[in-house]
């Protein structure tokens, strides 16, 4: 009886948590809907007097608004991609692993299983990365999301503002959402500013629209500052071919830690997110190369093209450059063997 109550309580808490997780998304949606009303009706249709100016403002606004809402929708409803079945332990291997009480034997079992898979990253102690909740060997750059309760390919972070885990399947959409959000706020702020000044100087009658115009500028500027910082940070991550998790915790390969192990160069790093067809870069359509289970590494490119080994990596100082060269050289030897 007591156990049944505990299960019911646990289920109720999970249900409440799922409902509350949509609150940040609801807040964003309400703010966007209000901004649409304030800009289209209170600014363009009521405050702006010139017909030509109204048309120009509305055309550009709706063009940006469509891409802004489109990318936000894709960021929210594109499901995180999970590892394929071949990374999961078979029923027999799972039984053997769980019944084995000696940690060193369990570690060796995972090493033997990982030899059949394209995995090159390890834990900090050098062990095979294994998820004991999903019962699978984690592919490179894959991490378990405690909020989504699943392993996510190329996981970047869990974002409460889209109530979704950002990873291989939707990172492009998330980055586009940030870009169009910045553009959306910037466009509103620049077009509203002149009317804000007019209201401030008393050149326009103090009507209901005054509140919407003044508050619209304030909200646009506030969101612009925070979004441009976040967008700039993710642009830096893309230029280095890093995820947020990898920026805070250096990936460990079979040869040891290597913070630039996935850095292929500026152009190729961008193509790892947006694809090699530039016509799709601004459109929220899936174009990221690969399947999310394995990724090209700098060491492999160097082994195939020795000229890349002479490229100077992007580091903060000369000491880091020397560490990087030593790390990638050892990693190249490891992958070739």
Q: How would you sum up this structure, described in words?
A:
- 58% of the residues lie in helices and 7% in strands.
- With 337 residues, it is mostly helical.
- Helix 2 (23-47) packs across helix 7 and helix 3 packs antiparallel against helix 6 (171-201).
- The relative contact order is 0.10.
- Among the domains are: 18-80 and 169-221, no CATH class; 85-162, no CATH class.
- Strand 4 (143-145) and strand 5 (150-152) form a beta hairpin.
- The strands form 4 sheets. Strands 1-8-9 form a 3-stranded antiparallel beta sheet, with no helix packed on it.
Number of strand segments: 9
Distance between the termini: 59 Å
Largest sheet: 3 strands, antiparallel
> How does the overall form come out from the CA principal axes?
elongated
Number of DSSP helices? Answer: 11
What are the segments in which pLDDT stays under 50 over at least 5 consecutive residues? Answer: 303-337
Order of SSEs: HHHHHEEEEEEEHHHEEHHH
Strand order of the largest sheet: 1-8-9
Radius of gyration over C-alpha positions, nearest whole angstrom: 25 Å
What key attributes describe this structure?
337 residues; mainly alpha; 3-stranded antiparallel sheet; two-stranded antiparallel ribbon; 11 helices
Topology of helices and strands:
Layout: H1 2-20, H2 23-47, H3 51-77, H4 91-99, H5 103-114, E1 121-122, E2 130-131, E3 136-137, E4 143-145, E5 150-152, E6 157-159, E7 164-166, H6 171-201, H7 208-240, H8 244-248, E8 252-253, E9 256-257, H9 266-274, H10 298-304, H11 318-336
Antiparallel strand pairs: 1-8, 2-3, 4-5, 6-7, 8-9
